[in-house]
Write a structure and sequence with these properties.
Elements: H1 24-51, H2 59-70, H3 72-85, H4 91-119, H5 128-157, H6 182-189, H7 191-209, H8 217-244, H9 250-259, H10 261-276, H11 281-320
Helix pairs in contact: 1-2, 1-3, 1-4, 1-8, 1-11, 3-4, 3-5, 4-5, 4-11, 6-8, 6-9, 7-8, 7-10, 8-9, 8-11, 9-11, 10-11
GO cellular component, one term: membrane
InterPro entries: EMP70
Membrane topology: Multi-pass membrane protein
């Protein structure tokens, strides 16, 4: 624990590192949704290990929807408390955004694909009653539970408790080498986490699209844990490089560097579509890429949140040891 001398690097930005992220409302909504998706994925995998969900075709999906609705307070709590710590005032709008962001995207995509399915008279068309039911779940279950979570989060964990105080004037960000730019870090951040789930993706895609039943959920849990660990490690390293370049915009960078894994997964889904499936025609193509986009989006939000949480702990840790006069 040395005093802050004329040192370079991350110690220089101690007065700016806890400055709220730009677009803090969107950021906290994303992180809240990411917490929720992480809990849902973990719960569904554990339920599948314990309860043999793979015996029936639709049981997996209905379990996921039920768990998603039930874990809405998680979203509200973490999103709302983060928004409050970032000094956000328009908390009702933030709550609505985090409650409806993922469901709206899912419903929008499903509605679009459904439109094509009805046009083609396909058996995959979702009946109208199901749509109404899902909308009711969103309005009467997810929204109130998110509200409860947000109120709790704002009141219990909404006070900013940063180890360093924030300077009044933002410090200018110096010029740095091209590979230290946040955009480059974001693109490279997803490579290693994608490498850790690459093999498993093939089996998951095959169970989605080739109708082979997937039943090695224990292995899936292992892959999930490895993905979390790799994501956290990679984003911490990326953030450390960024802070050493005296750039304090680490929140979005850490989130997006981890979330870029999903971009690689989506690119892999293109390869899978053209080389591993025999799909053709507008309906099958729209069906495949629409649902793959949703899958990648959920994965991205989840990985991004995990990366951000890990990095946030790391940043707090290193700045709490700095002594400032």
């Amino acid at each position: 624990e040395r005093d802050l001398g004329d040192e370079y690097g991350w110690k220089q930005v101690h007065g700016d590192v806890f400055r709220p992220a730009s677009h803090s409302m969107l950021f906290s909504a994303m992180v809240g949704a990411g917490y929720q998706v992480t809990v849902v994925v973990l719960s569904v995998i554990i339920f599948a290990i314990l309860g043999e969900l793979y015996t029936e075709r639709g049981s997996m999906l209905s379990t996921a929807i039920f768990v998603y609705a039930a874990t809405s307070p998680v979203n509200g709590y973490f999103g709302g408390s983060l928004y409050a710590r970032m000094g956000g005032k328009i908390w009702i709008r933030q709550m609505l955004l985090s409650a409806f962001m993922l469901p709206a995207l899912v419903c929008g995509t499903a509605f679009f694909i459904n439109f094509i399915a009805i046009y083609y008279h396909a058996s995959r068309a979702i009946p109208f009653g199901t749509m109404v039911a899902v909308t009711c779940i969103c309005i009467f279950v997810i929204l109130p539970l998110t509200l409860v979570g947000t109120v709790l989060g704002r009141n219990l964990a909404g006070q900013p408790d940063f180890p360093c105080r924030i300077n009044a004037v933002p410090r200018p960000i110096p010029e740095k080498k091209w590979f230290m730019e946040p955009a480059v870090i974001v693109v490279l951040g997803g490579v290693l986490p994608f490498g850790s789930i690459f093999i498993e993706m093939y089996f998951i895609f095959t169970s989605f699209w080739a109708y082979k039943i997937y039943y090695v959920y224990g292995f899936m849990l292992l892959v999930f844990i490895i993905l979390m660990i790799v994501t956290v490690c990679v984003t911490i390293v990326c953030t450390y490089f960024l802070l050493n370049a005296e750039d304090y915009r680490w929140q979005w960078t850490s989130f997006l560097a981890a979330a870029s894994t999903s971009g690689y997964v989506y690119m892999y889904s293109f390869y899978y579509f053209f080389f591993k499936t025999k799909m053709y025609g507008l309906f099958q193509t729209a069906f495949y890429f629409g649902y793959m986009a949703l899958f990648s989006l959920a994965l991205g939000v989840m990985c991004g949140t995990v990366g951000y949480i890990g990095t946030s702990v790391f940043v707090r840790k290193i700045y709490s040891t700095v002594k400032i006069d």
